[in-house]
């Protein structure tokens, strides 16, 4: 009984081995150790080629059709498939038809982008002056026409005679220009005495109320200056409030 069971188990193993797929030998066809280092440089390797020469096809490779733009084919009125090889005559014919179609309604051949080509001529553009073009000016003017034009300009010339400056009819307050021309002491030279407490602090606070030294000088003269200085606008006594300087007005008259 035990012998029959052993025979049955062995038969099952044989059936399973026959049904299991064969594992390919990765080292089949390779002579020697597959893990050996590569041969040294200059070593001649012999053996069967990887692909037998009989399996290499000798059929020539057909060149692909030359790509052509859809626009040129549509302009020429001809359509070709990708499998049809375009000849040189076809390409030349389609190129000529595309150029003819692009120039239709444009007034001539299309301008090629080449720096050696002359610049296009502009005609009828009245906004571009040609006064620097000698040939253009000489074509419409002459020495006689220039002389006549100068005579017309001289006839239209009018010289305006100077008139007296009108006098002021109303009092608009102190005139700082007249005051600057009526004084001679430079800025910072004491002419008037000043007394009081905290003159420097009061001067900084009160001068900050004016937008410019000219406005401070007008207010200073309107409130009794330069003899009196109630708001400490002229603490150094030179007659000029908040750093005002009469030198620019005097220099303007000298020039």
Quick synopsis:
With 255 residues, the protein is mainly alpha-helical. The chain has helices at 2-19, 70-76, 88-102, 134-140, 143-156, 176-182, 199-207, 213-222, 247-254.
Textual characterization of the structure:
This protein is mainly alpha-helical. The protein has helices spanning 2-19, 70-76, 88-102, 134-140, 143-156, 176-182, 199-207, 213-222, 247-254. Helix 2 packs across helix 3. It is elongated and about 125 Å long. It starts with a helix and ends with a helix. 8% of the residues are buried.
Task: List the main descriptive attributes of the protein structure presented here.
255 residues; mainly alpha; 9 helices
Radius of gyration: 55 Å
Shape: elongated
Order of helices and strands: HHHHHHHHH
Strand content: under 5%
Largest sheet: none
Number of strands: 0
Which secondary-structure class do the elements indicate? mainly alpha
Could you give the distance between the termini? 145 Å
Spans with pLDDT under 50 lasting ≥5 residues? 69-84
Question: What is the helix tally?
Answer: 9
Residues in helices, as a percent range: 25-40%
Mean pLDDT score: 74
Ordered list of secondary-structure elements with their pairings:
Blueprint: H1 2-19, H2 70-76, H3 88-102, H4 134-140, H5 143-156, H6 176-182, H7 199-207, H8 213-222, H9 247-254
Helix pairs in contact: 2-3
